[in-house]
Amino acid sequence: MAISSSPLFAQNLEGEITYEKVMRWTAIYSRLTFLSNEEKGRIEQTWGKDDESKTKMVLYFNEKQSCYTYPKVIENEHGWSWSERDYKIYRNFEKETKTDVIGMLGKTYIVEDSLRIPTWKVMNKIKEIAGHMCMMAVTEDTVKGQKIAAWFANDLPVSGGPELYAGLPGMILELDVNDGDMVVTAIDIKMKPVAAEDINVPKKLKGRKINDKQYATLVSDHIQDSVKARRAPFWAMPY
Amino acid sequence: MLAAHAQTGGRFTLKGTVTDTSGAVLPEATIMLLLPKDSSLVNFGRTGKDGSFEMKNLKRVTYIFKVSYVGYVPYQEIINPENKEVVDIGKAKMKVLQKELYEVVIKTARAPLSIRGDTVEFDAKAFKVPPGSSVEDLLRKLPGVQVDGDGNIRAQGEEIKRVTVDGKRFFGDDPKMATKNLPAEAINKVQVFNGKTEQAKATGVDDGKREKTMNLELKDSHKKGGFGKAVAGVGTDSRLEGKVSYNRFNEKQQFAVLGFGNNTNQSGIARNDYQDFKGSQSFNWGDDGDFGFSSGRYYGGDDITIQPNWGGQGSEGFTKNWAGGANYNYDTKKTKLSTSYFYNSTRSITDVRTSSENFLTDNSSYLTDGKNKTLAFTGNHRPAFRFEHNIDSLNTLILISNSRINGGDNEYSSETRSYRNEGMLTNRSDVNNLSDYNSFAMANLLLYRHKFKKKGRNFAASVGYNINNSDEDRRQNSVNQFLQDSTKNSVINQLQQTESTRGNFKGSLSFVEPFAKKFFWETFYNYSMRKDKVDRDVFDVEGSVNEVNPFLTRYYTNDFTFNRLGTSVRYSHKGLNLAVGLAGVQFDLRGKFALDESQQNMTRVDRTFKKMVPNVSLNYSLKNNKYLYAEYGLNVREPSITDLQPIVDNSNPLYIVEGNPDLIPQTTHNAYAGFNMFNPASFTNLYINAYYNYNEDQIVYNRTISADLVTTTKPMNISGGDNYGTYIGFGFPLKKTKATFGVNTGISFSNNLTYINNVKNETKTDGYNFGARLDLTPSDAFTLYTNANWNISNTEYSINTNQNQKILNANYNAEMNIKMPKEIYFSGRLNYRSYKNDQFGFNQQVPILNLSVYKLILKNKKGEIRFTANDVFKRNLGITQNANQNYYSERRVATLSRYFMLSFTYNMRGMTASVKRNGFF
Predict the structure, then answer these.
(1) Rounded-to-integer distance, Cα B363 and Cα B357, Å
(2) Quick check: B31 and B77 in contact, CB under 8 A?
(3) Are B621 and A225 in contact (CB < 8 Å)?
(4) Which terminus of chain B is more exposed, N or C, with fewer CB under 10 A?
């Protein structure tokens, strides 16, 4: 699998994209195998009308790197603040490396490894997101067992994207996990110089260092244990 | 990396130019190479300024060459390199995306457009049509689709011969059947493709003919039918139970009915049944319309609406219960309407034996024993209404109106005997009371919330009016004998007619102003004005003559006004929420008392109390599931008007209740703090908390006991009582998902003050609690959940020290579940309680064992047949003990004990049985 950043294209591309991440909890709960139809129906009937939670996320990017994390100022409309779990996803397309700082399973993990791109299947589907024509590509998260659909922009030739996804011919402006369980959509794209501290991996990172393989083992063990214990696995890690 | 293997001879180069149909070059177009088997992307790049591209070192396999360019239909071509070194595809000509499609589908509807082979698919959700429109109306909006006056549909220029719904035929072959009858909002996607003819499908021989077919994909929410459940059970000892529930819901509406009846002491609505009944309106927060922090808050009213039964045991005695109702919710983002009606009734027989020991100041005591029987009936009608309307994104209006119409009767008879010293009978009393009552309660609230454009700035206002009126007729008959002083003997034969009305107007305001990004400043005001009017006429009945009893007949009114004005500032950032606030509270109590309403010189109570109440709270959600919290507040409780009345109530001649007009409000300082932690990876959890409460001017009931054992109580203020304690709980898996162990321990100290015969008495109670639990969940066929709890409580009295007592309580629980072949399950529950009190030589063991065996039956496991044995050892004796403030009592209620029951459940959604309990989800 190769990523050739085309020599034909050498434009100064950097900026920040604000995404809105929408979680649809009834859909997420309906996937819990240990719940009965009756329990799923009850969840849907009670919460179905009011089951969305929305958060804003930011992706800083240039042609070589990107960093996806929380916005610097988190809007606090209800006058109540919850601590956010650590979530900083660094990508280096040039060196083909990644550093993911992820708070999960009660700890902060730093996943450092080479940048592996999932096998994307490009579909014949187009739509517009935030003023950009996007094409659909799909893949699968085999660890979490999720269907992934990404919409990438033809006219933003950076192989970045939100969450843990990248590696398409253009910037991913929308990511749909499991047919709408979680949808991350770009709502604002600003082309502007990006400060080094927003995009470079900090020298010092607190957390336990692991690699991709260890990450996959942790996550799949946790999902299996949770299902055995009839607990929802997604409260302890990013969906 | 492809580039790294450039030397391999088997590689080839692909080149060409991307242009539009007229031949104009398209620079910077995205070019991709996909594998034909699954469209997986193997290489990509961009065209140059001249529209040309060259991809080198390509593996010698067949590819799909794909180009995408804004405003053009994606281009696709199969590349087979064969033996060529260089494959030049020449000009890849891209077609302009039909303007209509682009504008309508992509720009306006923001819908994805997919061209998959010969299928053009629209995401119908994106096309807005007015509510109530048919699919036909929706189709008219779709680009490339025409619907004529007769409802005939043409797509991409061809007539649609067939319309399927979710791939299936919809009521015959007429394509208009579905499009005219289905609502547009039920449709998720519209697909148009060339389908095989019906003949080809039937014969399995593809005749090559294709018919334009349209498939309508339904939204999940419109696939839902109803779900329902029915249970019926018959048991020994004429036990019966039955329950029916049915729900239907779609995108906008929810409808539910629930009904049950039993004589197995189940009077409450189970939590799940409550949730299925109320649907999306099960839980509404903030519906009390009271704003501001908790310190000094005034809580008015009681539960008028139905409440879920959060577990717990059935009622005591023997009860027959009936209940039923219906709920309808209309639920959209803009408007939420919920109406329900519920009726429940309980007829109960309570047979009680009591015995008690009362300690007097001079180290002596007297004993009382008695028995009483109550036959009671109570019924409640509960209509409920809630309307919420989001006027726009900034303004919300909520209107709530709930009522309860209650009626019932009560027949009470008792015999009481008191003994002093060596079993010497001092007095006896036989009582027969009959009462008939009804009441009407209603709570109305209008709530308005406004969000300002500035995020975090909010205003809210509420007004409410509550009514609670009741009417009771009561016949009291008693014969009281004092064996040492027969002059005090009495026979009471009274009729009491009480009419009471209560009206409560309340209002609240709140304004929240955010500042410096991390701070919120709230100012609030609460007002409540409650008017009570009680008219009690008491007659002494002699034969058929009713004569007014001037000592007990009363007319009184009370006005209680509450004002609270407060302000608080909260710092809220990165999980830390720290709030500091102060409020001023004022209570005004105004009462008038007289024999009847017409009297001129009424006794008046007119008191005003003022108090400043602080509130400090901390909530800190730390990283990785750790949570820290603390709060300090002051609670103020005004004396009840009954306590303030200068009235002597001697309706029970052995227990006389007096009021005290000099009472002042009771204040309690309370502080608590705690820490919770949960490690989701190891499933370890830890809970720690501590609390401290200190009472100032606590209202306690002073008891004076006369030589002939008549107790007179009178409320008084006293300061200095306190209680404090701490709790620690820790749980961890011994073997993940198979065995979990937990321990918890708590200690508590309390000091209660009271006066006995005008001597101050301190009752100190030290409590020590220790518990352990072990959950064994080795497989999906067997589980065992056990826990044990030990509690020691030491009570010391400052007077009557020889009555100091130590109570030892132990509680053991075990639940075993086994899954057997053929969908047969077994479940056994044992609850073993022991209660030991050496002071009274009491040592009681109560083992309650419940067993059940059940089997899932019918297609899709829709049925369940169950055999239950309740209280196998027949030990549910309904014993409770109470040792408190120089008073020890024991009560035994004849209660439903052993019975066996056979029941059948039918669940439309299918039954599920699991030996494992659900975890946190």
Answers:
(1) 12
(2) no
(3) no
(4) N
Q: How far is the alpha carbon of B19 from chain A, nearest alpha carbon, in Å?
A: 16
Same domain, B120 and B67: no
Task: Compute the CA torsion angle B897, B900, B904, B905 (nearest 10 deg).
Answer: 30
Q: Which of B885, B917, B336 is nearest to A48 (CA)?
A: B336
Is B337 inside any structural domain?
no
Are B181 and B146 contained in the same domain? yes
Q: Which of B222, B257, B280 is the last residue of a domain?
A: B222
Nearest residue of chain A to residue B52 (CA atoms): A8
Say whether A235 sits in a helix, a strand or coil.
Answer: helix
Q: Are residues B143 and B203 in the same domain?
A: yes
Nearest Cβ partner for A36 among B224, B249, B912: B912
Residue B137, helix vs strand vs coil: helix
Give domain status of residue B658, yes or no. Answer: no
Distances (CA, A) of B576 to A80, A88, B622: 9, 21, 8
How many domains is chain B built from? 2
Residue by residue, DSSP assigns B828-845 as: EEEEEEEEEEGGGTEEEE
Average pLDDT over residues B82-111: 73
Phi-psi region of B456 (alpha: psi -120 to 50; beta: other; left: phi over 0): left
| CATH number (domain holding residue B78) | 2.60.40.10
Query: In chain B, which residue's Cα lies nearest the Cα of A220?
Result: B681
Q: Scan for tokens 């604002």, then name that residue.
A: A188
Kindly list the residues from chain B whose CB atom is less than 8 angstroms away from the CB atom of residue A120.
40-41
B69 lies in some domain:
yes
**CB-based contact (8 Å) between A103 and chain B?**
yes
In a domain, A7, yes or no: no
Question: What's A42's DSSP letter?
Answer: H
Residue B623: list chain A partners with CB under 8 A.
83, 85-86, 103, 108
CATH of the domain at A182: 2.50.20
Q: Of B681, B786, B650, B116, give the one whose Cα is nearest residue A219.
A: B681
Does the beta carbon of A227 lie under 8 angstroms from any beta carbon of chain B? no
The answer to whether residue A118 is domain-embedded is yes
Number of domains in chain A: 1
Q: CATH number for the domain including B205?
A: 2.170.130
Evaluate whether residue A10 is within a structural domain: no
- Flag whether residue A106 sits within 8 Å of chain B, measured between CB atoms: yes
Mutate to test the interface with A, among B15, B30, B271 (most CBs of A within 10 A): B30
Of A4, A85, A230, the CB nearest to B916: A230
Amino acid at B174: D
Percent of chain A with pLDDT over 90: 50
The partner residue sitting opposite A9, judged by closest CB among B28, B39, B909, is: B28
**B207 is in which domain, residue-wise?**
99-222
Calculate mean pLDDT across residues B113-124.
62
Chain B environment of A118 (Cβ under 8 Å):
none
pLDDT (tens digit per residue) in B641-659: 778 877 777 767 778 888 8
Same domain, B86 and B17: yes
Domain boundary among B204, B222, B240: B222
∠B64-B69-B74 over CA atoms, to 5°?
Answer: 40
The C-alpha atoms of residue B448 and residue B392 are separated, in whole angstroms, by 12
Does A167 reside within a domain? yes
- Co-location of B80 and B117 in the same domain: no
**In this structure, are residues B750 and B793 in contact, taking their beta carbons and an 8 Å threshold?**
no
Amino acid at the residue B531: K
- DSSP summary character for residue B105: I
The string of pLDDT tens digits covering residues B870-888 is 999 988 877 887 776 567 7
d(CA B681, CA B507): 48
- CA B558 to the chain's CA centroid: 35
Choose, out of B70, B629, B777, the residue to mutate when testing the contact with A (most A CBs < 10 Å).
B70
Strand ranges (E), B661-781 = 666-679, 684-696, 698-705, 711-718, 722-735, 739-756, 759-776
pLDDT over 50 at B2, yes or no: no
